[in-house]
Specification:
277 residues, mainly alpha
């Protein structure tokens, strides 16, 4: 049992699970627009997520403790390097347009962890995008929405129309909702200077806003030109699952509640669409 727990912890801590979530969201987009499975895009997204998340999570640790890293962190470093190499391999297969847009969002991800912007531009003397008051959740949602909606559509040269814009907004809104349980969990640890949603308005109002956003996520589906029966079914299921995760989240949730179960929502959505298809 101890071995299984260590494997599960490595699976989560090395960002494999969140990478599968982003990979699943991206595949959901391909299914929604009836596009073929795109190995290069999906594999790039998977390995880029591992690279980016591990860079953000562990940059500070490795920066100051590189000479005496714990064994598990060294393993994650090696794993992240392999993911980075794989990411570069699949990046070469992408179109120039995709790479141009990726460079912009790659810079955003970099600034999310590294203090390159002058301190005077930050409230409360913070040092990176991640620490600017109230910005964190929107940066995450924006990067996820671009990566999982815009990138696959840019790669196959799908023209921008009302359906693509609505899908982008839906994904942006859903990611915000799925991030709220994490912010509620982190109330015990986050600096008050971060000004996260629960810190500013409290847990109850945070959940109320989350419910409102889920309704927006659902009803936007009816504004699309092409309304698909399977899409409606899957959207309803994802709405209720996300709603339950949001309502039952609290400051003292288990370590796997958000990091594993909440982040499994995109994987569930993909499984539903594949079964319905």
């Amino acid at each position: 049992m101890g071995i299984l727990k260590r494997l599960l912890n490595f699976y989560i801590n090395s960002s494999i699970h969140v990478a599968l979530a982003v990979y699943s969201f991206t595949w959901v987009t391909l299914l929604q627009f009836e596009l073929a499975y795109s190995r290069d895009v999906l594999y790039f997204v998977f390995f880029a997520t591992i690279t980016a998340y591990n860079f953000i999570k562990y940059f500070g640790i490795t920066k100051f403790h590189h000479r005496r890293l714990a064994g598990w962190l060294k393993t994650i470093q090696i794993f992240s390097l392999m993911a980075f190499i794989a990411m570069c391999y699949y990046a070469i297969e992408l179109s120039v347009n995709s790479l141009v847009y990726l460079s912009i969002f790659g810079l955003i991800t970099f600034l999310y962890a590294i203090p390159l912007v002058p301190i005077r531009y930050f409230r409360d003397e913070q040092k990176n995008l991640r620490q600017i008051s109230g910005l964190k959740i929107y940066v995450i949602a924006l990067v996820w929405a671009f990566t999982t909606v815009s990138l696959p559509l840019i790669e196959v040269e799908v023209s921008i129309n009302s359906d693509t814009v609505i899908t982008f907004i839906q994904r942006f809104v859903l990611v915000i909702v799925l991030t709220l349980p994490f912010e509620i969990r982190d109330l015990n640890y986050d600096s008050i200077k971060l000004a996260t949603v629960p810190q500013r308005i409290g847990i109850k109002k945070t959940k109320t806003i989350g419910v409102f956003l889920l309704l927006i996520f659902f009803f936007l589906e009816y504004f699309k030109d092409d309304i698909d029966y399977d899409a409606i079914i899957s959207t309803v299921i994802i709405l209720f699952v996300s709603l339950l995760f949001l309502l039952f989240s609290n400051k003292n949730q288990s370590k796997y509640y958000s990091a594993f179960w909440v982040e499994s929502v995109p994987i569930l959505w993909l499984a539903i669409l594949l079964m319905l298809g």
